[in-house]
């Protein structure tokens, strides 16, 4: 299911907790699995549950609670726009609308070439740089005007 390298990374995360609390590594294990597989299917969730000796439903609950885990295939690049109040007041909704029109997709959808998936998020804790966009859950971009969005999309070509 997962590679030896992925299990080694999960073991490193497990080692950060007391031996009786290996389930505390569930979020890290999901992140590692998602990085390797691209998204989390039920077989992957079962694999993590077995490895951490947790009920599969408990792993599924974590995966469904946090928006950074993908339970369906996504594009090569996920673009997550914050539309919470602070970002909305600073143009977050307009940035989202610009991306929807430019990519011809809505929230939760992937472009026909499989390159981009557009997602909506609640607060990312970067209100001072609103509106913000997160790329692949790792790169936070602030002050996302249409020009800044176009520049980022060009960089992702």
Give an overview of the whole structure.
With 157 residues, the chain is α+β, with helices and mostly antiparallel strands. Helix content is 45%, strand content 11%. The protein contains 7 helices and 4 strands. Strands 2-1-3-4 form a 4-stranded mixed sheet, covered by helices on one side. Strand 3 (133-135) and strand 4 form a beta hairpin. Helix 1 (4-14) runs antiparallel to helix 2 (26-37) and helix 3 (42-52) crosses helix 4 (56-65). The relative contact order is 0.12.
Summarize the structure.
With 157 residues, the protein is of the alpha+beta class. Helix content is 45%, strand content 11%.
Tags for this entry?
four-stranded mixed beta sheet; alpha+beta; 157 residues
> H/E element string?
HHHHEHHEEEH
Helix content: 40-55%
The largest sheet has its strands arranged as 2-1-3-4
The total strand number stands at: 4
Question: Radius of gyration, rounded?
Answer: 17 Å
Supply the number of helical segments.
7
What proportion strand?
5-15%
Between the first and last Cα atoms, what is the distance in angstroms? Answer: 31 Å
Largest sheet: 4 strands, mixed
Computed structural class: alpha+beta
- Average residue-wise pLDDT: 95
Label the overall shape.
elongated
Low-confidence segments: none
Topology of this protein?
Elements: H1 4-14, H2 26-37, H3 42-52, H4 56-65, E1 77-82, H5 85-89, H6 92-103, E2 116-121, E3 133-135, E4 139-141, H7 146-155
Parallel strand pairs: 1-2
Antiparallel strand pairs: 1-3, 3-4
